[in-house]
Design goal:
CATH class of the largest domain: Alpha Beta
Distance between the termini: 45 Å
CATH topology of the largest domain: pyruvate-formate lyase- activating enzyme
Number of helices: 13
Number of domains: 2
Radius of gyration: 21 Å
Largest sheet: 7 strands, mixed
Structural class: alpha/beta
CATH superfamily of the largest domain: tm_1862 like domain
Oligomer: single chain
């Protein structure tokens, strides 16, 4: 049976990690006969569900990624199988079972429907050892280097701890250096780059320095650490951590998540840091000549206009000092405590001010 990954620009990072698992699989830009493997987030679900529903081919459709993992029952209205959580072990095993006509109920970490339309969830699979699996297939699909997976914090809006667990796992330095050979500009994925080597709560800057030092020893390579598509948490930004960035890295910016200027909102969403942590982190960036690029979310449930103005006050302060802001409207994601939440209305004043900042090049994102 032919195996096809449904490729698009928005899932390229996921497919880069999956490609080495099935070396004979092809990248397809539309449904093809055989086995079709999709990975997608909630924003892509409508178009993908429509595509699968209207596909006039003889295929087995397999879905994985953030949305299918968080909403398996919904996904099974259109797909034959859903891989829940990590796919490194599950996907190859499922493919082998399907090719051999075996019993899919033996495959851990999946959901499917019986002939009677009953949804079946198999036993959950344990988290994988990242060093056992490549970051990407350099011949077919590449992505930023994943250095860590999981997050110990339980932010109500975030899928990461629900998909990958609250115990942080790290790829070894040897493994990271091996895959870094394929790049001249090094970029990374992690829920918090400065938490490398740690439990995700208590920094281990000695391990961060060992990683950065090993990468710096590679000739003709630039290191962009703590920048998109990664970020860092505010409480991890200190003089010591910033000095590592300025010593070993080439980035002049640092992406961090403040998320709100309201102390009540930060507590409500279980963010795990304070507004003071954010302010100190941003000040430290400026002191060392690093431009902070600060994430904010607006529209949390029961968020008042006054609390939106508290975020706006912090945003104005950041931009006045020369920083940048990325703001976006809350998306209730499946599998999170906010899955069924109703976002609050964004005030006209907030939209007006952010719109003006966007025109001035100080803010990006979508806060409608």
């Amino acid at each position: 049976m032919d195996i096809n990954f449904r490729w698009n620009r928005k899932n390229s990072y996921s497919l880069a990690a999956l490609a080495p698992l099935l070396p004979d699989a092809r990248m397809a830009k539309k449904p093809e006969n055989g086995l079709m493997v999709y990975s997608f987030a909630s924003r892509q679900k409508t178009s993908i569900f429509r595509e699968v529903e209207n596909a006039s081919i003889e295929s087995i459709f397999v879905a994985g990624g953030p949305h299918p993992s968080g909403a398996p029952e919904e996904t099974l209205r259109y797909f034959d199988y859903v891989i829940i959580g990590e796919g490194e072990e599950t996907l190859p095993e499922l493919v082998r079972i399907l090719n051999s006509g075996g019993d899919v109920s033996r495959v851990k970490g999946i959901a499917y429907k019986t002939d009677e339309e009953e949804v079946v969830f198999t036993e959950a699979r344990k988290p994988v050892d990242l060093d056992m699996y490549p970051c990407f297939d350099p011949c077919r699909a590449m992505a930023p280097l994943e250095i860590s997976r999981g997050c110990p914090f339980g932010c109500k809006y975030c899928q990461t701890p629900r998909l990958f667990g609250r115990k942080v796992r790290h790829r070894s330095i040897d493994s990271i250096v091996k895959f870094a050979q394929h790049y001249s500009d090094l970029r990374f994925t992690s829920s918090n780059a400065l938490a490398y080597g740690s439990d995700g709560i208590h920094p281990r800057l000695d391990k961060v320095e060992k990683l950065l030092s090993a990468l710096r020893s590679m000739e003709d390579r630039k290191i962009y650490f703590g920048t998109f598509p990664s970020e860092v948490r505010p409480e991890f930004i200190t003089e010591d951590s910033i000095e590592l960035i300025t010593k070993y890295c080439d980035n002049s910016r640092l992406n961090l998540g403040a998320q709100s200027g309201s102390e009540r909102i930060l507590k409500e969403i279980q963010r795990g840091h304070t507004t003071e942590d954010s302010l100190k982190a941003i000040e430290t960036c400026f002191e060392y000549g690093i431009i902070p690029v600060v994430d904010f979310i607006v529209g949390f449930p029961d968020e008042t206009e006054e609390e939106q103005n508290e975020s706006l006050e912090m945003i104005r302060w950041i931009c006045k000092k020369g920083g940048k802001v990325h703001a976006h409207y809350l998306t209730p994601l499946p599998g999170t405590p906010y899955e069924n939440a109703i976002p609050s209305v964004v005030s006209r004043h907030f939209k007006k001010v952010l719109g003006k900042m966007a025109l001035e090049g100080k803010a990006t994102g979508s806060w409608e």
